[in-house]
Write a structure and sequence with these properties.
mainly alpha
């Protein structure tokens, strides 16, 4: 990382929490998978990509020699938080899944009253 002018501790400080979130979230997804499993994995990967975007941007600037273009840097300044917000919205959608609540509610109301057996408790 010193080749592009970023010390290692900066990389670890910025990529450490998203890597931990990816590992812990991945373990939780393996243990208790939600209905939209693929969307949850995509959200975790998108969050990790968003954390790596500034470093990928710096590496791209160094390799292309376009490090002095501030207008493109301004776009990158707004792009990274937008990708993080997109990742969290994807994760929220994967875990809440509003359409699955309607499916469960319709499944529970059809035919359950007929299947019940009266029991004498007491």
């Amino acid at each position: 990382m010193e080749a592009i002018g970023v010390p290692w501790f900066v990389l670890v400080r910025h990529l450490g929490p998203p890597l931990f979130l990816f590992a812990a979230g991945g373990a939780l997804l393996l243990w208790r998978p939600p209905r939209r499993r693929v969307l949850a994995w995509a959200a975790l990967a998108t969050n990790l990509l968003a954390a790596a975007l500034p470093f990928l941007w710096i590496a791209g600037q160094v390799t292309s020699g376009a490090g002095d273009l501030t207008a493109i840097g301004l776009v990158m300044t707004f792009l990274q938080p937008g990708v993080v917000a997109l990742a969290w919205l994807m994760l929220l959608w994967a875990l809440v899944d509003p359409s699955s609540g309607r499916r469960r509610a319709t499944d529970e109301t059809t035919g359950q009253e007929e299947d019940r057996v009266t029991e004498n408790v007491g």
